[in-house]
């Protein structure tokens, strides 16, 4: 078994940094410091972390999004309970009794209310409550709550970064800090290869709420090609293994109408030649990732998608395999190396 201790430590630091869509400051600070080891770093008007390195070959943009799914406080009721809406694709099926942190004037521990089964109506077990019927209990009356919490404050789901057996880890916000880690690891590999490449990096904001960070950031990067790194669905009990990929069997190379076919095939050919494990991911329309915004930015950008298989997506206990992150990084590094040499 490979030792991925350094990669795991990097991913843990990224996952522990909070950054719900539109409030990614903490995560951006951590990612900015890590990226600064490899190239000059800036933060754009929307908050995306960007870097640029001049070199040979076409300008290639690497993108992964910084933001994580969470909640946003919409009201404080008469008893001090916090009402909320989802910020990104939060799954209401797993919210009852979930532990959360409200990022108000200070970080406040809270629990989403849950009706005991003894008091539940007969049909309650068959459905998840809508967001407007749930609330967060922070243990305070209204007057006390209002001193610490403001409408618009973000809420994150509590959970620990845990090492499972093998190379697997569990944490909130692996979507998409795994992509950020893969790009940073790719830059490490490129340093080891001493490759002179023409490269831009973007750790974009607001992907979970529509991709505005990627759209504006890609316009500024003016890249010839782009590779977005995100997560995608891993097989699990009751989930079809035909539709989803498997943990530990390699990065997922995307094929879709919105993706550049030649880039996808080139990534596939490199993976075969270098014995890098991979899995195809075929989509019949848009990808639901930053690729959809990057592709149509400016005059248009040839775009490819690599995805890290992820189990339990959009929960506080997402699971991935560190080996898939490593292989995603290796494949990107080999692609960039090859493209830089073609135009040397």
Structural write-up:
The structure is a single chain. The chain is an alpha+beta fold and 344 residues long. The protein contains eight helices and 17 strands. It has helices at 5-16, 25-35, 142-148, 174-193, 212-221, 261-273, 291-294, 322-342; strands spanning 41-43, 49-53, 56-65, 70-76, 82-87, 99-103, 107-112, 136-137, 154-157, 162-163, 168-171, 197-204, 225-233, 251-255, 278-282, 302-310, 318-321. The strands form three sheets. Strands 1-2-12-3-13-16-14-15 form an eight-stranded mixed sheet, sandwiched between helices. Helix 6 links the parallel strand 14 (251-255) and strand 15. Helix 1 crosses helix 4. The longest helix has 21 residues, at 322-342. It is globular, with a radius of gyration of 21 Å. The protein starts with a helix and ends with a helix. The relative contact order is 0.19. The model has no long low-confidence stretch (mean pLDDT 92).
């Amino acid at each position: 078994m490979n030792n991925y201790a350094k990669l795991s430590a990097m991913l843990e630091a990224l996952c522990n940094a909070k950054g719900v869509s539109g409030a990614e400051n903490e995560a951006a600070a951590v990612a900015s410091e890590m990226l600064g080891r490899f190239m000059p770093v800036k933060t754009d008007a929307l908050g995306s972390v960007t870097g640029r390195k001049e070199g040979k070959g076409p300008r290639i943009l690497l993108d992964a999004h910084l933001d994580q799914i969470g909640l946003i406080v919409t009201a404080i009721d008469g008893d001090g309970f916090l009402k909320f809406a989802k910020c990104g694709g939060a799954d209401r099926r797993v919210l009852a009794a979930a532990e959360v942190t409200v990022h108000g004037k200070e970080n406040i521990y809270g629990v989403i209310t849950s009706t005991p089964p003894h008091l539940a109506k007969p049909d309650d077990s068959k459905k998840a409550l809508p967001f407007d019927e749930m609330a967060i209990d922070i243990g305070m009356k209204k007057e006390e709550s209002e001193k610490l919490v403001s409408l618009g404050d973000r809420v994150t789901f509590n959970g620990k970064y845990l090492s499972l057996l093998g190379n697997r880890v569990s944490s909130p916000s692996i979507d998409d800090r795994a992509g950020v880690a893969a790009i940073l690891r790719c830059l490490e590999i490129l340093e080891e290869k001493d490759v002179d490449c023409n490269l831009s990096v973007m750790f974009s904001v607001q992907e979970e709420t529509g991709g505005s960070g990627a759209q504006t950031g890609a316009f500024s990067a003016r890249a010839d090609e782009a590779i977005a790194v995100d997560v995608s669905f891993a097989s699990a009990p009751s989930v079809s293994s035909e539709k989803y990929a498997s943990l530990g069997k390699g990065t997922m190379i995307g094929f879709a109408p919105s993706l550049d076919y030649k880039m996808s095939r080139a990534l596939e050919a490199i993976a075969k030649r270098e014995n890098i494990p991979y899995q195809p991911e075929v989509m019949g329309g848009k990808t639901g990732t930053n690729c959809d915004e990057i592709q149509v930015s400016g005059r248009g950008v040839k775009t490819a998608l690599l995805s890290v298989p992820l189990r339990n997506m959009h929960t506080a206990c997402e699971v991935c395999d560190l080996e898939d992150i490593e292989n995603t990084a290796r494949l990107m590094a080999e692609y960039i190396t090859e493209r830089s040499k073609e135009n040397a």
